[in-house]
Amino acid sequence: MNVVFNILVGVQMVSALAMIGLILIQHGKGADMGAAFGSGSAGSLFGASGSANFLSRSTAVLAAVFFACTLLLAYFSHSRPTAGGSLIERAAIGASAPAPAPAPAAPSPASQIPTGNAPAAPANSVPAPAAPAAPASGAGQIPTK
């Protein structure tokens, strides 16, 4: 299926480039007026009116090929299974998945302080500074007045 999709993209690109080239080669409506008065286009490769028919028919065939490839690419891209479609749908699918279990917390330094037979601190000693608090997350980061 992927090979067919890639081939269709290649055919569509080649037909689009060829159609652009053919459209740029074609003469406008005013170019036939010059041929009627003896301009040099009367002696062209396809004759006085042959190039217009050949180029316009070639452009029409390439336009039909381009249109058919576009329809087939739209059909194949719609029928392909996707991982959830748009980014919003993928985010919604990811949000509904269960969250992984949190890792066990490392033991805090306070829990490693031995208790029991430790001597009491003298009355005139300065207490140890408290450990810095963990930074707040989410709404806790917004300062209040």
TrEMBL record:
Claim: Membrane is one of the keywords in the record: yes
KW Secreted (keyword) present: no
Role played: Involved in protein export. Participates in an early event of protein translocation.
Species whose genome carries this gene: Variovorax defluvii
Biased composition (Low complexity): 108-139
Coiled coil: none
Localization, UniProt: Cell membrane
Name of a matching Pfam family: SecG
Its membrane topology: Multi-pass membrane protein
Record key words, sorted: Cell membrane, Membrane, Protein transport, Translocation, Transmembrane, Transmembrane helix, Transport
InterPro entries associated with the record: SecG
TM stretches of this protein: 7-25, 54-76
Segments for region (Disordered): 97-145
Protein name: Protein-export membrane protein SecG
Major localisation: membrane
Family (UniProt): Belongs to the SecG family.
